[in-house]
Amino acid sequence: MTIRRCAPLTAMVVGFSFAVPGPATATDKAAHAIAEKFAGGAEREETKRKEDAEKRQVAEAKRKAEEAKRKKAEAARKKAEDAKRLAAEETEMLERARREAVERKAAQDKARAEEDAARLAEEQRLVEEQRIAEEKRQAEEVRRAEEQRLAQEREEAERAEKAQRLAEEQRIAREKYMAEQQRRAEEERQAEERRVADKERLTEEARRAEEQRLAQQREEAERAEKARRLAEDQRIAREKYMAEQQRRAEEERQADERRIAEEKRLADEREKALVAAREAEHHRLTDRLLRLDEQRKEDAKHLAERPMGLGVPPPAANTLADHGTQSVPRPPLTGAAPTITRVTVLLVMEPGTRGIRRYGKKTADPVLCSGPTCWISGGSDETASAKRRLQVLGSGNTLGARAADCNHHLACAFRNIDLKSRVATVQPVDLRILRHDRREFLPLEADPSCRVTGGTLTCAKVYTARTWRAWVVPENIAEQAGAEALEAALASGLSARPSTALIPTRF
Q1: How many helices, marked H, and strands, marked E, lie in the chain?
Q2: pTM recorded for the entire structure
Q3: What is the maximum span of the chain, computed from C-alpha positions, in angstroms?
């Protein structure tokens, strides 16, 4: 590269030297001297550069493998070719410069030679600066090569460290694996020992069980013999006891017959006495009512005769109060009112707020329970089915028929259920899959205020709990109302206005 840069300058200097007029021989010699000087400096620089490159290649060859040697040989070959090409170019330029110097040596003069000498000095300075710059560049390349070498050494050191760390981790993992294998082998050995011990224990237990079974058979045989003898003794004792009991029962029967006959006689006497007392009380009350009626008529007559009610005697109620604290008695009843236990319950429930009922459709699957009995509705025109509580609330019914006609209904009718007594405590239950929604208990009884008017069923008493309400309709009234009236009452939500005094206290 230095030869390429210097060759044009050399040609220029030679050309300028031949262009100056003056003695041709002196100028030619000067030109030859300058050209040889530049050519020798370029060759020295080229030689020095080659030596430096060879040194670097030798150092690089020591560090690299066979691939580096091949690259070095290739680089040396290319550099030799470049040197030959540059030498040929330089020879050609010198020849051309000589020819140009011969052609222009007549036109050169002394002044131009001096000017050319000054320019030549300037060019020498520039060449020197270029040489210094080239040396700096080469030094920079050496420094970069050294930095690359150091970086590669660091990378190799890091790779070696990583490899060492990886080997250490593999060693630790291998040790852990071996320890785990030893632990498992120890556990298997202990398990085998336990299995053998369990087998021996089971064999011993089987032997003991067999011994116990034989001992139990002997004991059972002894107990059976004792039981046979004891049963024979008990049979004899029982026969004696039964004979004694028959004798005593005969005596007690005769005594009971005598006692019953005596009690019947006494009851007849008491009944006759009560009838006589009732007739006397009836006559006394009849006379009293007649006197009270006459008193009222006389008071009304006095009230009509005296203006503005002045001087009106006290009312009949006060007159009764003068005779005592007892109110006017009703006429005697021929018998007590019958107890109504057959009813139809019209139930309206609030939607459930727990479990799946919170998110799904607002509905229910209600059944009605009282004690050990639950009723499943058959609709507004069919008698409800009475079953055991465990059967209705069990998984068989929960996953089967469930609430029958009441499935997916908040309002439902339970026809012709038997409360067994005048007042019964009932509880609606909303059937769910896992955990049933058991509502509040409430005591119910037949509502005598229920009426059918114009095909509409109304009841004054509404049994109200926190999450449900109901009408308790006597069954004869429900039959009179019919299924349509019952369904209409359910559809209205039992909307009759109940009297506050008639609503029972919550259970």
Answers
A1: 8, 12
A2: 0.36
A3: 194
